[in-house]
From TrEMBL:
Residues 242-256 have a biased composition (Low complexity). This is Type I restriction enzyme R protein N-terminal domain-containing protein. Residues 230-256 are annotated as: Disordered. Residues 232-241 have a biased composition (Pro residues).
């Protein structure tokens, strides 16, 4: 954690310096920003078996800038990273489609786009449209010399242990479900929505001293917001229990 904090402070200083003096190209962005963060996350950028540059899953496929590979799962990258020059709009649809296609080709469950400052993380294999696979984005420059907990939490999802655990996928699922639940809950408090009647029917017997009209007026004045913890992923599904091993029982006559 301390290594990551120090790396982010270093990167924030560089980003501020670059923006004040000159633009830097993609190669320099990779060398002075992107790889600094990857190393701080525990990835050995000098080991091509762990961090492979210009990774091609097949000879005719387009290369991903980086493939992050776990030693115990060498067949497919655990994540692909597409790096652009500092200042590039990394939410551009063409770039998103590009990195998600790399993830599909390579089998990587996680896709990342970065311009050295902004880091965008995607659940690459979610069964939804490309942009909806987006999970979270953070900017290093937003924290300056004091990296915030959200920046650290999100970037640590790209560490080996968290990628191996599938936390990007589970947190994306949790955020997706929370968004759906929040949408329905918000409708309960909207007088124009049919769901509002159900809320009023539920509240009426709990507040017998209030008239229906008073209850309706009170709910109409309410401005409800719902907060969900961003740090608790949906637990992994437990493995199916192994079938019981059959045992041979001795027959009554002592034969087996």
């Amino acid at each position: 954690m301390n290594d990551l904090r120090a790396a982010l402070v270093e990167c924030a200083r560089k980003i501020d310096d670059y923006r004040g003096r000159r633009k830097i190209n993609e190669d320099n962005t990779k060398a002075t920003l992107v790889e600094v963060v990857l190393r701080a996350l525990g990835w050995d950028t000098s080991n091509a078996d762990e961090v492979e540059r210009e990774y091609r899953h097949a000879s005719r496929s387009k290369p991903a800038d980086y493939a992050l590979i776990l030693a115990d799962r060498p067949q497919h990258p655990i994540a692909v990273v597409e790096a652009k020059a500092l200042g590039t709009n990394v939410s551009d649809y063409a770039i998103v489609s590009q990195v998600l296609s790399y993830a599909t080709d390579t089998g990587a469950p996680c896709a990342v786009i970065t311009n050295g400052d902004e880091w965008r993380i995607y659940n690459a294999h979610a069964a939804v449209a490309g942009p909806d696979r987006f999970y979270r984005a953070v900017r290093i420059s937003d924290s300056g010399n004091r990296p915030g907990e959200e920046l650290l939490r999100v970037l640590l999802l790209l560490s080996k242990d968290q990628l191996r655990a599938g936390n990007v996928q589970r947190l994306w699922e949790a955020a997706t479900y929370d968004q759906q639940v929040s949408s329905v809950l918000s409708k309960l408090f909207d007088p124009a929505d049919p769901l509002n009647k159900g809320l009023l029917d539920t509240l009426s017997p709990l507040l017998p001293t209030l008239s229906r009209q008073a209850l309706e007026q009170s709910v109409a004045r309410m401005r409800a917001t719902f907060e969900f913890s961003p740090t608790t992923p949906i637990p992994a599904k437990p493995a199916a229990p192994a079938p019981a091993r059959a045992t041979r029982v001795a027959a009554a006559d002592g034969q087996t």
